[in-house]
Design goal:
Chain lengths: 111, 113
C-alpha cells in the first residue's frame, strides 16, 4: 500500500525566514495535495499537483512535484505567524477515491 | 457558497452510547468522504459515499461503524456502543461529480468518557 513520509516532523522558524517541507511517496503519484490544518481545526486546501515537474504558487507558498512524481516540496518564503500550523501532504495514488495522508509537519513561527 | 458543514463540532459520549456525526457537502458536490484523525496520528480514510451508495468502505472498522448518504439530507457517520478508543476528530470531505480536490469540513471532535 502507498505510504507518504513527511519531513521534518516539526519545524521552528524565526519569523521572516524561509522554510521547506518535504513529502516522499513509496509509489508514483497520480495527484499530490497539500493541506494546512490549524491546531484543533479543519483542513484548508492549499494546492494540488498532478504533472511531473509541476510547480504552483499561492502568495508566499510554492509547491513542486518532481519529474518522477514521487516527491514534493512545499516552500514558504518570508514566513509569518499566520503560516503556523500543521502541513499535510496527501496522495491520490490511483485516481480513485481515498487520499492517503502523511503524518504532517508541525510548523511554529517565532516572532 | 458555503463550505462543507459538520455538526456537532464537539460531541461527548459515555462508553456504550451511540454517536451520530453529520456532514453536509458543498453545494453541487455529490461525493462524500469520511476520515478519522486519532491523537498523535495522521488522517486516515474511512469511507467514500455517493448519494445512496457506499463506494469504498475499506477504512471502516468492521464492527459498530456505519455510514450513509441518503438521497435527501446530510451524510451520517454512526458509531454504536462507543469505546474510549473511538475518541478522535472525524472529518468529512466532499468533491464534485468529476473526481477532483476534496474540500474538508471543520471536523467533529468526539470524546468518549
Amino acid at each position: 500500500s502507498q505510504e507518504l513520509e513527511q519531513s521534518p516532523q516539526s519545524l521552528i522558524v524565526q519569523e521572516g525566514k524561509n522554510l521547506t517541507i518535504n513529502c516522499t511517496s513509496s509509489k508514483t503519484l497520480y495527484g499530490l495535495y497539500w493541506y494546512k490544518q490549524k491546531y484543533g481545526e479543519g483542513l484548508i486546501f492549499l494546492m494540488m499537483l498532478q504533472k511531473g515537474g509541476e510547480e504552483k504558487s499561492h502568495e508566499k507558498i510554492t509547491a513542486k512535484l518532481d519529474e518522477k512524481k514521487q516527491q514534493s516540496s512545499l516552500h514558504i518564503t518570508a514566513s509569518q505567524p499566520s503560516h503556523a500550523g500543521i502541513y499535510l501532504c496527501g496522495a491520490d495514488g490511483n485516481r480513485d477515491d481515498k487520499i492517503i495522508f502523511g503524518k504532517g509537519t508541525r510548523l511554529h513561527i517565532l516572532p | 457558497n458555503a463550505g462543507v458543514m459538520q455538526n456537532p463540532r464537539h460531541l461527548v459520549r459515555r462508553r456504550g452510547q451511540e454517536a451520530r456525526l453529520r456532514c453536509s457537502p458543498m453545494k453541487g458536490h455529490s461525493h462524500v468522504y469520511w476520515y478519522r484523525q486519532l491523537p498523535e496520528e495522521g488522517l486516515k480514510f474511512m469511507v467514500y459515499l455517493q448519494k445512496e451508495n457506499i463506494i469504498d468502505e475499506s477504512g471502516m472498522p468492521k464492527e459498530r461503524f456505519s455510514a450513509e448518504f441518503p438521497k435527501e439530507g446530510p451524510s451520517i457517520l454512526r458509531i454504536q456502543q462507543v469505546v474510549r478508543g473511538d475518541s478522535a476528530a472525524y472529518f468529512c470531505a466532499s468533491s464534485p461529480p468529476v473526481l477532483d480536490t476534496q474540500y474538508f469540513g471543520p471536523g467533529t471532535r468526539l470524546t468518549v468518557l
